[in-house]
Amino acid sequence: MAMVEDIDLRGMQHCETTALGVLLRHEGLDLSEPMLFGLGSGLSFIYWDSKSMGFPFLGGRVKPFELTRNLAAALGLELLVGETTSPRRAWQNVAAVIDAGRPVGLQLDSYHLDYFSTKVHFGGHVVAMYGYDRQDAYLVDTEPQGGAVSTSLAGLARARAERGPMTAKHRSFTITAPSDPTPPRDRIIPAIKACADAFLNPPIANLGHRGIEKTAGQVPKWLQRSGNPREDLPRTAVLMERAGTGGALFRNLYRDFLAECAQLIDNSHLRTGHTLYAEAATLWTQVAALIATAGESGDATHLAQAGSALHELSRVERDAMQALSRI
Length: 327
Fold this sequence. Notes:
Layout lengths: L1 E2 L11 H12 L6 H7 L3 E6 L8 E5 L4 H10 L2 E5 L4 H13 L4 E5 L16 E8 L3 E5 L7 E5 H9 L10 E5 L11 H13 L7 H11 L3 H4 L3 H13 L9 H14 L3 H30 L3 H24 L3
Helix pairs in contact: 2-10, 6-12, 7-12, 9-11, 10-11, 11-12
Pfam family, one: BtrH_N
InterPro entries: BtrH_N (IPR026935), DUF4872 (IPR032369)
Protein name: DUF4872 domain-containing protein
């Protein structure tokens, strides 16, 4: 058995920030989950649909692992990433780190993890690993998934080897903090401005505030778009509210990040952004509830109401990001 000592096993709401929190606390840097998410410029939006998909997907954050790269760059952390097509080499990459007394982050497909009760393929899932024995790996996942958990080594190997959307090639990573790390407070404004710029100037209409506006026009048609609306629509609502988003499609996390920043920085544009993201978070939760009700009842009126709320959300988030771009 190999086990890293002095590990803080707190699970958070979102998988990538949970893993980052474990790795950074072991390096002596303890930040709140909203601060990790915000300094990583994690907020985004995507409306994703194609003929090969059974139903559209709504995403509220940047693509997997981009948050980790952003956070490492912002705080001047050393991020070492290992990827390989060899399962044997992949295990060696992980075991060597743990044997040396350090936790390691893994990107994998949650479908194969023993403790996941809902078996859905998601190749962008991230966990922290802090130990192993002959049969099991010891991980930290989100608080809703159990926090400190274990899974079989065979299941872990399958999860890491899976290929498909958002997967990586047995990706593992470590983070090392410098002796004089960049104070998080000094990186707040650049992180906010980078996030705002990407949101306000998306390269395609499916992203950012333009993506929310596009979604507003598509959601009212979802009863016809779905082959099984009683399953597809409530599942979408669950993904928005409870599938590691922290609620409101990550808007609760960004609202709380801005509130924490406003305690550190006196800026009117920052306060405006926080007020507007508090409004946006409430609206997103309402949209999720309307989508779920429409699926359960078959009544398209609820989708029309969701579409109206999404039109408003596009405006609210655009105004919020415009204010934040001026801080």
